[in-house]
Design goal:
The chain is mainly beta and 133 residues long. The protein has one helix and eight strands. A hairpin with a 4-residue loop joins strand 5 and strand 6. 20% of the residues are buried. The structure holds zinc ion.
Length: 133
């Protein structure tokens, strides 16, 4: 195992199905028209609406903050060291927890433009990560 493989459930199935085609979906509230991360059953913005839908995202944003991890939390993560865990602000306005890849961790900075990239999971799904844009 090279990384954790997220579980899928009824709520997140559309997101994970789309990753098989490298399509990045973001959940939106149709009542207040705000993007939502992570997926939920009720909008955390207006706290009223369960009228949520998935919209395809261009997968672009910028680094809001980040951390460079040098010690593995679990043995299987050793091969990935050092790796970057970041909060990325998507163009849609919501922030996602992700990894920044395809660059040296020392090159990552707050405000750096990034775009979605994909890493294969074992079952055909892919996990979205981000790389310099
Ligand atoms: Zn809402």
């Amino acid at each position: 195992m090279a990384r954790f493989e997220p579980q899928t459930n009824e709520l997140t199935a559309p997101f994970w199905d789309a990753t098989k085609e490298e399509r990045y979906l973001v959940q939106w509230c149709t009542a207040c028209n705000k993007a939502i991360y992570y997926p939920r059953e009720v909008c955390p913005g207006c706290l009223l609406s369960d009228n949520l839908e998935w919209r395809e995202s261009p997968g672009r944003g910028e680094v809001y903050t980040f951390n460079v991890t040098h010690k593995p939390g679990l043995p299987f993560m050793t091969d990935r060291l050092p790796f970057v865990v970041a909060l990325v602000t998507l163009e849609e306005g919501t922030r996602v927890v992700t990894n920044i890849v395809n660059c040296d961790p020392s090159e990552v900075s707050v405000g750096m433009p990034v775009k979605v990239a994909w890493e294969d999971l074992s079952d055909g799904r892919k996990i979205p990560v981000f790389e310099p844009a």
